[in-house]
Specification:
111 residues, alpha/beta
Length: 111
């Protein structure tokens, strides 16, 4: 899982398609056991979501809410966006067009 520590409180996670997606999400959720920071999930290399991926996103969202940290999903492909809309997840996650806009949103405290 390519992770970029952008600041003391923000990390950027660049996700890939499955099976890498599932491994990346499991690693991220486990990593959050010890650290508290906001997360930007870069979907730039993700071309589809399956039910396991959606479950992992929901587990991550719950963990972030428990930690009172912010999570932004960005660079969403049209097919992935369609999956998020059909499942209603477009209403519960915060989204951004790209990583730089997501970072600006977190810095301004709007997510």
């Amino acid at each position: 899982m390519p992770v970029e520590k952008w600041s003391e409180n923000i990390e950027i996670v660049r996700l890939g398609d499955d099976p890498q997606f599932a491994e990346d999400m499991d690693s991220l959720i486990e990593k959050l056991q010890d650290r508290w920071y906001d997360v930007v999930l870069d979907f730039g290399s993700v071309s589809f979501l399956n039910s396991s991926n959606i479950g992992a996103l929901l587990r991550l969202r719950k963990r972030m809410m428990d930690l009172e940290r912010r999570l932004i999903l960005c660079a969403i492909d049209k097919k992935v966006w369609g999956s998020l809309i059909v499942t209603g997840l477009d209403k519960i996650f915060h989204f951004s067009n790209d990583v730089s806009t997501a970072l600006a949103t977190l810095q301004m405290g709007k997510a």
